[in-house]
Design brief:
single chain, 268 residues, mainly alpha, Outer Surface Protein A, domain 3, 2 domains, elongated
Length: 268
Amino acid sequence: MPALRETEELFWKLITAPEGVADGLRRIDMKPDALAGLIAGDARLDAVQRLDIYANMYFWRLLDILRGDFSSVVAAVGDDHFHNLVTDYLVARPSAHPSVRNVGSKLADFLATHALGVERPWLVELARLERARVELFDGPDGEPVTLDELRALQPEEFVRLPLPLVPSHLFLDVGHAVDDVWRAAESEQPIEPPAAGARTLLVWRQDVTVYHRSVDELERTALLRARDGASFGIVCDLCAESMPVEEAGPAAFQLLARWVGDGIIARP
């Protein structure tokens, strides 16, 4: 009788076999009689058929998880196409992580080579956005600074004010307005192919909610500099490089107010 760990590994290989348990047995050169020594069959179902039930349940469980994680992609392609995409994906990239939470970690990369993604490249970017939101939901916590804390500062303190970003954030460069597709899917509106054009999406978590929005080049640069340790004074200087000096200060404060309101700036 094999050890418990060996039995668990065997069952995992069999229920994740692309063509079912019988195919899994052939792949590892194991006879059905040997499996019957581990799983008791009966008059209705033998060991292979009994384990196939678990394999089917496992597939539908993964499909349900992926439907939830990539709901906008489902809305864009429809249930039938998404079912076929997931089937192809799990055959090509069977899950090897102990947590089903990670089953979709490679779906966007796979979609880039799939017929759906080749025909509609913006689907790949939409999948990357949805995966980013899933990952940041489970990301590390950070305590955002508040507007009341900023109001308590003296004017001269703002120049040296550090602007660290909350840890659960990322920048996603895309070539289509996939945030418009996501918004339409969330509001159950008809999905239209998004406009082409490079843009950067900022994705972050505030409390238990994940947000995203597009940022222009100035805001992107300022946020990246802030993440690298730049103070608010440096942000003011960046604004002054792209607009009249008398407008730079108010523009920098508008950015700061928006960042703090969004919960993007962490407490130093």
